Amino acid sequence: MTLSTTTTALPGGTWNLGDLTVTRFGYGAMQLAGPWVMGPPTDHDGALVVLREVAELGITHIDTADAYGPRVTNELIREALHPYPTGLHVATKVGAVRDARGGWPPARRPDQLRRQVEDNLETLGLDVLDLVNLRLGNSEGPVDEPVAEAFETLADLQRQGVIRHLGVSNATADQVAEAQSIAPIVSVQNMYNLAFRRDDELIDRLAAENIAYVPFFPLGGFSPLQSEALSAVATRLRSTPMSIALAWLLRRSPNILLIAGTSSVAHLRENVAGARIELSDQDLAELDKIGA
């Protein structure tokens, strides 16, 4: 099956991750794995259909991690899309693995990171990874800890030619700066959405430096966003609250890239359509109060 990508129909335009141009509206593959991101999907063939629809819609930024499943989402991406369409770029993460109970124990020793990079290369069927984010902290959020040894390991792999670009995930502003002192970064991937806005100042700083900010859980994650103000704006615009939340993120700052995930083609198309919504100044004023 030959797939091609086109970016003209997607909301938000494009952004440059270093020398890679990607659509600001991307796709997060985490939900393709089984419950709690463990094991295979209930509908294997359906997952492949979703991924092929991602490419057909013109989305050129897919976010994944070998820890999802583990290995499940990477192998699905490879099965559905390899050889990858020209212009399609896959971002992945290292720094945490999975245990038998579904936990996310840190794995950031140099030997662990090298193994995770090798695993991502193998499961995705690539010789070079477009973007590798170093996942810091734990499942509860960022943790104030040094990042130098781990990030220097990834910078060394970048010099060896197996990683094109670097980023950090689940990081504090100080950790972002520490990583930047070691090697250039092209993205920061943290939890952020309409109601959870701890990184407002960081987003603005990164925008001034032409560095992407990629919110994970842009719709609230396992606890979907709930707000009377959000529902009121959605009703007025004859849309859904989730669509309004995505449209708000695209308006929040030009360096924000969306990686909303779904295991449904219909929901994927709904997300794309919803993100095209034009929000008025009044809409934005009402929505901004939610996370103030």
Task: Describe it.
This protein has 292 residues and is of the alpha/beta class. The protein has a single domain, classed as NADP-dependent oxidoreductase domain (TIM Barrel), CATH 3.20.20.100. It has 10 helices and 9 strands. The chain has helices at 44-56, 72-81, 110-124, 148-160, 173-180, 200-208, 228-236, 241-252, 265-275, 281-288; strands at residues 14-17, 20-23, 27-28, 61-63, 89-94, 129-135, 163-169, 187-189, 212-213. A 7-stranded parallel β-sheet has the order 3-4-5-6-7-8-9, with helices on one face.
Task: Give me some keywords for this one.
about 35% helix, alpha/beta, TIM Barrel, seven-stranded parallel sheet, globular, about 290 residues, two-stranded antiparallel ribbon
> What is the CATH homologous superfamily assignment?
NADP-dependent oxidoreductase domain
Radius of gyration: 18 Å
Low-confidence stretches at least 5 residues in length (pLDDT < 50)? 4-8
| Number of E-type strands | 9
Number of DSSP helical runs: 10
Structural class: alpha/beta
The H/E string reads EEEHEHEHEHEHEHEHHHH
Helix share bin:
25-40%
Q: Categorize the overall geometry.
A: globular
Distance between the termini: 48 Å
**In the CATH hierarchy, what is the architecture at level 2?**
Alpha-Beta Barrel
Highest-level CATH class = Alpha Beta
Q: What number of domains?
A: 1
Question: What is the subunit organization of this protein?
Answer: single chain
State which percent range the strand residues make up.
5-15%
Tell me the major beta sheet.
Answer: 7 strands, parallel
pLDDT averaged over residues:
94
Q: Could you tell me the CATH topology label.
A: TIM Barrel
- Output the strand order for the largest sheet: 3-4-5-6-7-8-9
